[in-house]
Amino acid sequence: MKYKCTRGGDASVTGSTAIVTGLSNNGGLYVPEYFPSLTPDKIEELSKEPYSRRASYIMSLFLTEFNLNELTDYTDAAYNAKRENGFRNDKIAPLYKMNNTTYFLELWHGPTCAFKDMALQVMPRLLTASIKKTGEKREVCILVATSGDTGKAALDGFCDIENTKIMVFYPQNGVSKIQKLQMTSQKGANVNVTAVEGNFDDAQTGVKVIFSDKALTDELDKEGFFLSSANSINWGRLVPQIVYYISAYCDLLAGKKIKSGEKVNFCVPTGNFGNILAGYYAERMGLPVNKLICASNRNDVLTQFINTGVYDKNRPFYTTVSPSMDILVSSNLERLLYELSDKDGSAVTAYMKSLSEKGYYEITGTVRKELKRIFSSGYCSEEDTMRTIKNTFENDGYLIDTHTAVAYKVLNDYRAVSNDGTVSIVISTASPFKFCNAVLEALGHSEINGATASGCDILEDETDLIEKLSRATGCDIPAPLATLKNELPRFTDVTRPEKMKESVLKFIREG
Ligand SMILES: *Cc1c(COP(=O)(O)O)cnc(C)c1O
Q1: Is the CA virtual torsion 38, 42, 43, 48 positive or negative?
Q2: Tell me: the pLDDT tens digits for 316-343?
Q3: Smallest Cα–Cα separation from 368: which of 342, 393, 387, 346?
Q4: How far is the CA of 312 from the centre of ligand 1 (A)?
Q5: pTM, two decimal places
Q6: Of 37-41, 231-235, 420-424, which gets the smallest average pLDDT?
């Protein structure tokens, strides 16, 4: 299997090169040359296997220069409920049954309690192996600018992985107390966490400047290091995400909830379009999918796109209670455009040019028709997000986080207008305890010292809110969040954006 670039060109690269380089040098993204096929018999067979074996098999179809045993070593290590601080559920990605046609795929039983773990627990292992396969002799230093969840998931995934170092920059006043403590208390000999004076944009711009700093790259080269990123456009993050769509289907099959070949819907709370794109890839491989429902919060640029064919980022940006979906440019959508336009790199280049010059583009004709074939979409307001959390807990006894609530509301709206009775799976992307202030407020506990839904400037200590949510609902606190209040910050450095480069060098030289 080779990888092409979404913006055209004849050259194709191996999966390991795609993982090591991240982005193609014309700015495009790497995409598989074709979709390996998954027959109904194979799906039946996989349904008898545990998650890690489903994962290694599916990844082996895309990463053909890895052998199955090698991949199984990585997936057994990553998707392991026996490892300390690993996954907390034997099924890794269990399905919660709400009723005969509604399931929730819980992707938050990993070490950081959010779905980024599904990819970031295995991706570092793929990356180090890919580095060896490409003949690269230097070690990799991963740089991450984070507004919260990705930083912790990347730290946890890369912690003590050989031949890697990871450095995370977060905006000093731009993450919640819980997120900050999760990161600054990170264990491991190869990690560093540094606060940046400024907001997320300052941190992100600082990282971009470092990547393009030739003098710094030369310095690092002398120390035996090269820089890379672990962001969600990397193929190594996308390929593990295809697995849980197939795994969810296998579990329904194994539990005799559906018949072989029966189609299901997935409803996905969407931000950068990585999660739902993996669902599309699974469908193209042959997974029986009726609709992929793309759920947006108030930043509903994707819903508009799916409904009208026009992608327009010239619109206000809102901060919401589902912050991981607050995004105006969804990078992974470029990969979908490539498939919709029948792998036409020049068409994708034209869309992306229009996006960067005018802030919008429009798809028409067969491209739009293929989008409509499989995607549906909807958006959920802030009030509806809160109401959905409350109703779902009070009526169904199931506690969900803000992102999952967006998806569940959108699924209910879709059902109301479509009369589609297909078995549907809501992708549940975070533990409710990760967003406990908004969840508590939704449940009517807003008296807690004026806690704001968005969460950064609350008066009460957030770790107390975790316990309050547990008392209010009778739900258990996930272990990594329960012990958080006993953790001490290891990393206290604060830097100015223009000094981030010095921090990187210091970390590489002094550890
Ligand atoms: C990252 C994230 C999302 C959005 O996923 P994309 O792949 O960016 O579309 C949704 N919910 C949570 C909790 C997340 O962390």
Answers
A1: negative
A2: 999 899 998 998 889 999 999 999 999 9
A3: 342
A4: 20
A5: 0.94
A6: 231-235
Q: Is the dihedral of CA 28, 32, 33, 34 positive or negative?
A: negative
Structural contact between residues 264 and 258, judged by C-beta atoms closer than 8 angstroms: yes
Q: Can you tell me which atom of ligand 1 is nearest the CA of 327?
A: 8
Report the nearest atom of ligand 1 relative to the CA of 275.
Answer: 7
Q: Is 108 in the pocket of ligand 1 (CB under 6 A)?
A: no
Rounded to the nearest angstrom, the distance between the alpha carbon of 177 and the centre of ligand 1 is: 20
- Pull the structure tokens for residue 147: 């507004």
- 192's CB contacts (< 8 A; 6+ apart) are 165, 166, 167, 168, 491, 503, 507
The CA 272 to ligand 1 mean position distance, Å, reads 7
Atom 3 in ligand 1: which residue has the minimum CA distance? 324
CA 303 to chain centre: 19
C-alpha 238/C-alpha 228 separation (Å) is: 16
What is the amino acid identity at position 28?
G
CA of 147 to the centre of ligand 1 (A): 12
Q: In which element (H, E) is residue 382 found?
A: helix 382-396
Predicted pLDDT at 82: 92
Protein residue with least CA distance to atom 8, ligand 1: 272
Contacts 24+ apart (CB under 8 A), 497-500: 497/196, 497/197, 497/198, 497/202, 497/203, 497/205, 497/206, 498/206, 500/169, 500/194, 500/196, 500/203, 500/206, 500/207, 500/209, 500/210
Q: How far is CA 69 from CA 15, 35, 37, 57, 82, in A?
A: 17, 22, 21, 10, 20
Residue nearest to atom 4 of ligand 1 (CA): 271
Round to whole Å and give the CA distance between 176 and 148: 8
Pairing relationship of beta strands 102-106 and 424-428 according to DSSP bridges: parallel
- Catalytic residue list: 116
**Can you spell out the DSSP letters for 21-38?**
H-B-TTS-BEEESSPPP-
pLDDT band of 460, cuts 50, 70, 90: low
In this predicted structure, the answer to whether residue 133 has a pLDDT above a threshold of 90 is yes
Residues 373, 379, 385, 391, Cα dihedral to 10°: -50
116 close to ligand 1 (CB < 6 Angstrom): yes
Q: What one-character-per-residue DSSP string does 109-124 give? A: -STTSBTHHHHHTTHH
pLDDT in tens, 18-74: 999 888 888 899 999 999 999 999 999 999 999 999 999 999 999 999 999 999 999
- Rounded CA gap, 89 and 80, in Å? 9
Q: Distance between CA atoms of 265 and 268, rounded to whole angstroms?
A: 10
